[in-house]
Specification:
Mean pLDDT: 95
Radius of gyration: 13 Å
Number of domains: 1
């Protein structure tokens, strides 16, 4: 069971949804970067059925320490992808950081 989940919400205009799904999907730039880091498990991208411009991304890590180490080690690459992807969204925000209930 993953020890840490990081969840973000995005609002994406219809004209950017294909590019957004490509960047945030299972073979996208984010997952390619995450896969380079120890402790990364997987990512999932969800689209809201009732609000089709709303997406959730969930990143699963072994631990919060692994996520923090990734952010430190790959800060420049993270910021570069984030800057490129910013134009794809109308809004975005962190929903939360979660750990399993044992």
């Amino acid at each position: 069971m993953p020890g840490y989940m990081y969840v973000w919400e995005y609002r994406v205009a219809p004209e950017h949804q294909d590019a957004f799904r490509e960047a945030y999907g299972p073979a996208g730039a984010w997952v390619q970067l995450f896969r380079r880091a120890p402790g990364y498990l997987r990512s999932a991208l969800y689209r809201d059925r009732l609000q089709p411009d709303r997406f959730l991304s969930i990143d699963y890590w072994e631990s919060e320490a692994d996520w923090q180490a990734f952010r430190s080690s790959y800060a420049a690459e993270f910021e570069a992808i984030d800057a490129r992807c910013e134009e794809l969204t109308k809004s975005e925000g962190e929903i939360g950081r979660f750990e399993p209930v044992e």
